[in-house]
Design goal:
Elements: H1 3-7, E1 12-16, H2 24-42, E2 46-53, E3 56-63, E4 79-80, H3 85-98, H4 125-129, H5 150-156, E5 166-167, H6 171-185, H7 189-200, E6 206-207, E7 221-222, E8 228-229, H8 237-241, E9 244-245, H9 247-258, H10 265-274, E10 276-281, E11 284-286, E12 291-293, H11 299-305, H12 308-312, E13 315-316, E14 318-325, E15 331-338, E16 341-348, E17 353-359, H13 365-380
Antiparallel strand pairs: 1-3, 2-3, 2-17, 4-9, 5-13, 6-9, 7-8, 10-11, 10-14, 11-12, 12-15, 15-16, 16-17
Helix pairs in contact: 2-13, 3-6, 3-7, 3-10
């Protein structure tokens, strides 16, 4: 019997208040019915699920943060969230624009003298943030995947497509955007994230660099073969996939996106920018970090937008002119993975509902999307 299966009976919920007219038991039953079979089928050691519904937070925790220590998952357990980190990076860049430190229309070379005379003279910060620079790859080549060598790679890179015509999902693309946004603010990216952006969003348990006193809360990740693994260093790792956070903090981030009026004016503007559609691709609207679908959205559309094909292959884009904010009722989401973790976050503005799924195994995106869709659809009917 898998460990995940044996401990599932210990799943519990912590509710921060109750929602008028919405019984507690049905939400727990709904989440259990989706998550318990998922963990068994995917052999996931531990999961943390958080839901925000009409301003109330609900936490559901399953299994263990480590198979060795048997420490149970809680709403304070730290998980790697992989590419959901890109939504934090996008928010920082949009915040820099709100402060007047950069414009998304700026060429990348404005903040990188190293790139003057290269192809990046004709690539805007917006192109970098939306994966439309012209074919930057998903990952750095192995010999360039280091902070000291990445600019050598960028200087010699040649576009595969005209800038702004194709979407090719890329860590070197949005990673460079985050790096240059930090340069515009004249501080290191990690410091800006941990000392400015995260506190400004009300987050108290989120990190790029997990401090020693929090290591006991850091879940152990597990690769597909079951071996323990955690994310390692790489070029622009902080900017592209480096955030570690808890379900309690990540759901607060979702709430900041649902109710940005609680933030200061510059952060409100930044949130609005990240939820703006700059182009469409096969029914998906590309925002800044976030991706969204006008509602009502079908499960099939979500699965297509979060598929391997969307992640690994180039897709022609249709510019949105002028760029338009996500409408009320849109499904806004992002997946994230590292070698040993799998995460998903989704929310629906106008319905004041959102969910985060954090697991210490990289399991298929399809299963994350289906689980979240089932849970939120059930809640939306109440």
């Amino acid at each position: 019997m898998h460990l995940a299966k044996s401990i599932l009976a210990g799943a519990f919920i912590l509710a921060c208040g109750t929602t008028p007219g919405f019984a507690q038991a049905p939400i727990q039953d709904t989440v259990n019915a989706v998550i318990q079979p998922l963990m068994e089928q995917q052999d996931i050691a531990g999961m943390a699920v958080a839901i925000t519904y009409n301003g109330q937070r609900h936490y559901f925790n399953y299994g263990v943060a480590s198979r060795d220590t048997k420490k149970p998952v809680t709403d304070q357990t730290l998980f790697e969230i992989g590419s959901i980190s890109k939504t934090f990076t996008a928010t920082l860049g949009a915040y820099a624009q709100a402060l007047g430190k950069l414009s998304l229309a700026d060429p990348a070379s404005r903040f990188a003298p190293e790139l003057r005379g290269s192809a990046f003279e004709g690539v805007s910060l917006l192109n970098l943030a939306t994966y439309s620079a012209g074919g930057l790859p998903l990952q750095f080549p192995g010999d360039a995947d280091h902070a000291d060598r990445m600019f050598g790679y960028y200087k010699t890179w040649k576009p595969l497509y005209p800038t702004g015509t194709q979407r090719l999902y890329s860590n070197p693309s949005i990673g460079l955007f985050g790096y240059l946004a930090a340069r515009s603010l004249e501080r290191p990216f990690d410091d800006l994230m941990e000392q400015t952006l995260m506190p400004g969003l009300g987050l108290k348990h989120s990190y790029v660099r997990v401090p020693k006193e929090q290591l006991s809360q850091y879940a152990q990740g597990y690769a597909k073969d079951g071996k323990p693994v955690r994310v390692g260093p790489g070029a622009l790792d902080s900017e592209a996939y480096g955030v570690k956070t808890s379900s309690s903090d990540l759901i607060r981030f979702i709430e900041a996106n649902l109710q940005p009026q609680r933030l200061d004016a510059d952060l409100r503007q930044a949130i609005a920018t990240t939820q703006t559609g700059f182009y469409t691709v096969d029914g998906m609207n590309q925002g800044l970090g976030w991706e969204f679908y006008p509602g009502p959205v079908s499960l099939e559309a979500l699965l297509a937008g979060n598929s391997a094909k969307m992640a690994f292959e180039p897709h022609p884009v249709e510019p949105v002119t002028p760029p338009r904010p996500a409408p009320d009722g849109a499904w806004i989401n992002k997946t994230g993975s590292t070698g040993g973790f799998g995460a998903y976050a989704a929310f629906v503005p106008g319905k004041n509902i959102g969910i985060v799924l954090l697991a210490n195994k990289n399991y298929p995106n399809e299963e994350r999307v289906k689980a979240a869709y089932r849970i939120l659809s059930a809640l939306d009917q109440n």
